[in-house]
């Protein structure tokens, strides 16, 4: 098992597949999870997006239901993913070990 769990959140006009080069680089050291957020990439969940908080809740529920044994994780967020990561940390601080944020959107 991996000792480090990382959730990677993609940027706007992007999808989880854009994180693949980084995921491959980190894969030997960590469990890296990169879901496509609602309305992006191959996400089948395309309910309209109302807020970053709503997207953060999507990610929290995804992690809780898909990876129930993972209780804590780091989050990397690029662009819109960074805004979602900050909301996730505010809403569920018990689950977030740390944030890495890159080029946040306004």
Molecular structure report:
- By secondary structure, this protein is of the alpha/beta class.
- It has 3 helices and 4 strands; from the N terminus they run βαβαβαβ.
- The longest helix is centred in the middle third of the chain and has 15 residues.
List the helices and strands and how they pair.
Elements (H helix, E strand, L loop, with lengths): L4 E5 L10 H7 L4 E3 L18 H15 L6 E6 L1 H12 L4 E7 L4
Parallel strand pairs: 1-2, 1-3, 3-4
Helix pairs in contact: 2-3
Based on CA inertia axes, which overall geometry fits? globular
Major sheet size, sense and barrel closure: 4 strands, parallel
**H/E topology pattern:** EHEHEHE
Measured between the Cα atoms of the first and last residue, the distance is 37 Å
Mean pLDDT: 87
Q: Strand sequence of the main sheet, in spatial order?
A: 2-1-3-4
Strand count: 4
- Uncertain ranges: none
State which percent range the strand residues make up. Answer: 15-25%
What is the tally of helical segments? Answer: 3
> Fraction of residues in helices?
25-40%
| Helix/strand class | alpha/beta
Summarize the model shown:
This protein is α/β, with parallel strands linked by helices. The chain contains three helices and four strands.
Q: What characteristics describe this protein?
A:
single chain, 106 residues, alpha/beta, four-stranded parallel sheet, 3 helices, 4 strands, 32% helix
